[in-house]
């Protein structure tokens, strides 16, 4: 997948607009380092007038993801519409820059929510709202969430999605992230030790 599908042209955002939105990827707009690369916040002028808050994720191949992962994510996000998924604003593929641009969500990301002191009832309610998302053809995602079988074989099955969904469920229910300092935690062991009678 070396270039965008013609159907995605409407989502392409020029690099200069992206630089303006993030103040040239300034330190003040830096949010954090993710599995995809550096993440920045910004303000983007959509349709020449409406200003929206955005998050820009700059692909950095040293974290293990490349062009195929970038296009898989763009295609996947352009097809998915779900109230619990962040909205895709567009993408940039210009001058060796590959950037995914999402709408900024004021309530933050799921990983921020799970670290708070939520009741078990609220955690279960979050899990119910996570279900019902479509299965995608190609795998993409951060280490720790991707099915180890896919990593070994390169083959995606319905079990790959179930694995990834299971990791997210464990995170929500346990209140712990699957990855800490680029190290996978043993979610099954953590679940057993916490809930064994």
From TrEMBL:
<dbReference type="InterPro" id="IPR000719">
    <property type="entry name" value="Prot_kinase_dom"/>
</dbReference>
<dbReference type="InterPro" id="IPR045272">
    <property type="entry name" value="ANXUR1/2-like"/>
</dbReference>
<feature type="domain" description="Protein kinase">
    <location>
        <begin position="25"/>
        <end position="197"/>
    </location>
</feature>
<dbReference type="InterPro" id="IPR001245">
    <property type="entry name" value="Ser-Thr/Tyr_kinase_cat_dom"/>
</dbReference>
<dbReference type="Pfam" id="PF07714">
    <property type="entry name" value="PK_Tyr_Ser-Thr"/>
</dbReference>
<dbReference type="InterPro" id="IPR011009">
    <property type="entry name" value="Kinase-like_dom_sf"/>
</dbReference>
<protein>
    <submittedName>
        <fullName>Kinase-like domain-containing protein</fullName>
    </submittedName>
</protein>
């Amino acid at each position: 997948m070396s270039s965008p599908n013609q159907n995605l042209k409407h989502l392409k955002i020029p690099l200069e607009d992206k630089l303006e939105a993030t103040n040239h990827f300034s330190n003040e707009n830096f949010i954090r380092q993710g599995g995809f690369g550096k993440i920045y916040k910004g303000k983007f002028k959509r349709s020449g007038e409406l200003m929206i808050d955005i998050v820009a994720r700059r692909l950095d191949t040293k974290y293990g993801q490349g062009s195929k992962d970038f296009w898989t994510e763009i295609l996947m996000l352009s097809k998915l519409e779900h109230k619990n998924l962040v909205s895709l604003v567009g993408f940039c593929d210009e001058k060796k820059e590959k950037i995914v641009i999402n709408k900024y969500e004021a309530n933050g990301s799921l990983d921020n929510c799970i670290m708070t002191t939520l009741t078990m009832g609220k955690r279960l309610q979050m899990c119910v709202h996570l279900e019902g998302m479509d299965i995608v053809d190609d795998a993409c995602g951060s280490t720790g969430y991707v099915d180890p079988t896919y990593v070994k074989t390169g083959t995606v099955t319905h079990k790959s999605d179930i694995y990834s969904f299971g990791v997210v469920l464990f995170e929500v229910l346990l209140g712990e992230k699957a990855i800490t300092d680029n190290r996978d935690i043993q979610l099954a062991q953590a679940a057993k030790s916490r809930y064994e009678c």
